[in-house]
Design goal:
single chain, eight-stranded mixed beta sheet, 8 strands
Length: 239
């Protein structure tokens, strides 16, 4: 048996089968270009498409968690259309003569680091929101379908989703009827994904550490003990 300590978001205990969720990152290539106007136009098109997608997710969120919490995705729309963010991306395109995908990725990386370095825990957690909107924009620019939710490839119910961290859009678009709990190696109890999970009534333990993901496999039995801030792998043996 192996135990991992984390931060619980719900004072209850559940047991289920692990489903290890790995996001498929979109490779962002650095491409130099002289046609910066075209790259800016591509970015503006991606922005409008992202706003349309987020508006649909907002509607789903309203039906699941109510208008107040669904406002998280209104905030994402505001972030994507924020002049400071867009101007920063434009500046990267203009000064480095690069494609929009790379400019978005670099700008989001810089913005996320700024949030992550803040002392305020709420603001620190906003780094995940920046990564969410960046992933959406780069997917649109790369013409890759956006992963709005967690694709539960494992059959059955009572699944414990185990992953590095969760994006708000992944939580709200998941099939909550099949999920017993979330366990994340990183993340924060103040993140929007954690807040959404709590509202959806899905127990979660965050910040259990990267070693957990090295020890758990899809199909393993996992006990999420929210009362003790623990995640237990009964069949695992520490070597």
């Amino acid at each position: 048996m192996m135990e991992f300590s984390g931060i619980s978001l719900c004072p209850c205990a559940v047991t289920g089968r692990a489903f290890v969720f790995s996001r498929h990152p979109i490779p962002v290539k650095l491409i130099h270009t002289e046609n910066t106007d075209l790259e800016k136009q591509r970015l503006l098109y991606a922005k409008e498409t992202a706003v349309s997608q987020l508006s649909e997710i907002y509607s789903v969120a309203v039906s699941k968690v109510g208008t107040e919490l669904a406002g998280i995705f209104r905030t994402h729309i505001m972030m994507i259309t924020d002049d400071d963010f867009l101007d920063a991306v434009f500046e990267v395109i203009d000064t480095q003569l690069v494609n929009a995908e790379y400019a978005v990725s670099l700008t989001a990386y810089n913005f996320a680091n700024i949030f992550a370095a803040m002392d305020d825990t709420y603001m620190k957690a906003r780094a995940a929101d920046i990564r969410d909107i960046s992933a959406r924009l780069t997917a649109i620019l790369s013409q890759v379908p956006s992963d709005n939710g967690i694709e539960l490839c494992e059959s059955g119910n009572e699944l414990v989703v185990c992953t590095d961290d969760l994006l708000p859009s992944e939580v709200i678009m998941c099939d909550i009827g099949r999920i017993s709990a979330f366990v994340t190696a990183n993340g924060s109890k103040n993140s929007h994904s954690a807040i959404l999970a709590a509202k959806l009534g899905i127990p979660a333990v965050v910040c259990v550490g990267d070693e957990f993901l090295n020890c758990v496999s899809t199909g393993d039995i996992v006990t999420v003990n929210g009362l003790g801030n623990k995640v237990i792998l009964p069949g695992a043996v520490r070597i």
